[in-house]
Amino acid sequence: MTFTTLTFILFLWLVFALYWTLRYRTAQNILLIVASYSFYAWWDYRFCALMLISSLIDYIAALSIDRSPKRGVRRAWMWVSVAMNLGMLGFFKYFNFFAESFTAMMRSLGWEVGDVTLKIVLPVGISFYTFQTMSYTLDVYFGKMRATRRLIDYMAYVCFFPQLVAGPIERATQFLPQFTAPRTFDDAEATDGCRQILWGFFKKMIIADRMAILVAKVYGSDGTGVTLDQASGPTVIFGTIAFAFQIYCDFSAYSDIAIGTAKLFGFRLMRNFAYPYFSQSIRQFWQRWHISLSTWFRDYVYIPLGGNRGSSRRLAINLMITFIVSGLWHGASWTFITWGALMGLAIVVSTWRARRAAAAGLAPADRSDTGPAGPRLMRMLCTFAVICLGWIFFRAPTMASATAAVGRVFTDVCTLQGFDSCWELMRSNAGAMIFVLIPLLLAIEWVQRHRDHPLDVGTWPRWARWTLYTVVIWGIILWMPKVRAPFIYFQF
Amino acid sequence: MFRFVVKLFGFALVQAALVVALIAATEMPVAFWGTTRGKHEIADRAPSPRMIISGGSSDVFAFDGKALREATGYYPVSLAVYAGLGVEYFLKEAEREARRGDVIFLSLEPHHFATFGINEEVLVQMVVERPRSIFHIPLRHLPLVLDELLNHIRVHLDARISSLFRRRRAHEVPVELDEYGIIILDRPTPKPYKSPAPEEMEVLKAKPHELPELIDRLNAFVRRCRSRGIEVVLAMSPHDRAFYDFNQAYIDRVHDELVKHFEGLLLGPPSQFAWPESYLYDSMLHLNLEGRRIHTERVIEEWKKLNLKAP
After folding, report:
1. Contacts (Cβ under 8 Å, ≥6 apart) of A56
2. Which of A18, A143, B34, B187 has most Cβ atoms within 10 angstroms of its Cβ?
3. Between helices A126-141 and A46-67, what is the axis angle to 10°?
4. Which of A186, A212, A159, A180 is nearest to A4 (CA)?
5. Distance (Å, rounded) from C-alpha A49 to C-alpha A394?
6. What proportion of chain A, given as a percentage, has pLDDT over 70?
7. pLDDT band, very low/low/confident/very high, at B166 (cuts 50, 70, 90)
8. Pairing label, strands B286-287, B280-283
9. A480 interfaces chain B, CB cutoff of 8 Å
10. Which one has a higher pLDDT value, B177 or B26?
11. Is the ipTM of this complex over 0.85?
């Protein structure tokens, strides 16, 4: 069940009504479990078994860790949980990738090896909930929290439907206690939740889905047979800018809807995006983009590797490993690994610059929210350009087409022929929208950048708020494209 | 909680008021899908025994109602709107509409006997135009229909707002029906039909289980209808001769299977209902006035062989 459907809207209000009718917390949690499994089964009921197994193993592992005084036993259970979660993820997500890479390597060495790929369907959201359950066991193992005995609370925490499929990836230390605490309905929170959901719908259905049409034309997934290899340098740039906003509006919209929905049920999810395209450095970008995943990797990969302790070289290695793993998390493909490596490299440079500035007793430039607008804008544009370079690898279907496209960006950008094809695209309906929607989005976000989300207008007079909501709702209904693209992060 | 619910309902009421104001301020001509209402009204008024014609849009163009009535004694009522609604929809709709003594004339397009996709968008249109149509939709399509509803709301509101500014869209062209629910062809098509070249021709094919399943479904339908005193006649709808020639092996095999296994009455063979492009209106399945006349004569000829006369 996708958020941007009437089915979901009906489902949401039905569950909401039932939920607040129930007086006991346990009954509410049971309802959430039933609703979440139904929500998940909407894609494929077989996936539910996988989620159930993953949840139960982590529940048992965490309890065993908590109860055992012996360090060896605790460690063994921790590894059982990690191996099970990564094993499951590895099998469903990476088996074919590693099998293909192994076969290709063997063949390049002159050994003939038969194909060993399997027909595996990737369960929706597996990367998200395995990370969430794994973090629970790890937090119990590291002594950050006690394991819960209450299976119902724990199950509700794992499968909570608003954030089940594409995050935010919640930490047990923050999120699980919310399932064990009594909850009361907060009128202001619920109203703000509705506003955030509405903003999510606007970003997804108006901006992301419209950008998707343009991006598909450039990256060759619109079924017309035109491929990325045929796109000129300016076309690649134009298409990649569109993709940058498509992926942002698509993914942050999902987070907004998830956070807003959670607020309706009395839960607070962590913020996942904080206006990332206003970042003045790559380092800052990664503090504002997919925050729940970035902090997950920081806590469970980067810091265990040594974090920023040690030499600059060690720091660079730790950052590179973390970002390459993050790339691999996104998908089993060399394009994602390259994207991760590129981002890692950029953040190493960004971090070194910040360290050098600190050593010289200067405040890092990216922290300044005041001062002359020109340099700030330049820093934002430079950061955006590097991010877009990464997006080419992220979006391209193959490594070969990605590298060729990057090559054309640097060589073909000044040719008249290259601009001709780009101009055609800009003049198309889908292309022209970019000049309306992106400035509109940026203007709204800039004005509201100090707020949780741009529709956080609780202080406005009622007539103004209701007029705004009406404009947004009617805008969505009248301007949403007929074909709605699935959320990009569902594939991860 | 109470405050929140009141606010929510208040806001919903404001939106509803806006929609009502928009509806009051605008007028929507009956679009093609809206003809389903008129067709059912005709069916309600029509004297028994009736010939309930069910199928795709080809049947909206295919028959001369008066000639059929005179030749068979049944009062023909075409419920047909669009092929993409699917055979299950046609069967449910016809079954709910038919009364004892009626005959259901299923005139299915060749595509219905091959792998065929249902158009959920039009299913939604049917429900919006005539809410009772929801009973004709197979259960498994309901969630998708619900999702499509959002698109429908968009198109409908857009059309209404456009009409405020006197802009008329192509899909708003009004459609007029005669007293048998058949489209009145009083103007030439802006785009006369031309048979496609063989390399552009659609290839009919089906998975091995699809045709037997369809025949089983049709037979179950025939048995249910007969138990209520309703007869069922099946035929292939009119179609382009060039299309028939291109897919002849497949279409003839379908007919052979129907001859062997179909328990109702069968008109045919399909070659009898394949017409050259000069008889077609704007598509390979829509007949023009001359095509309508000649096709009706052919159907009457075949009908006589069934010895099926109105009681």
Report:
1. none
2. B34
3. 10
4. A212
5. 31
6. 93
7. low
8. antiparallel
9. yes
10. B177
11. no
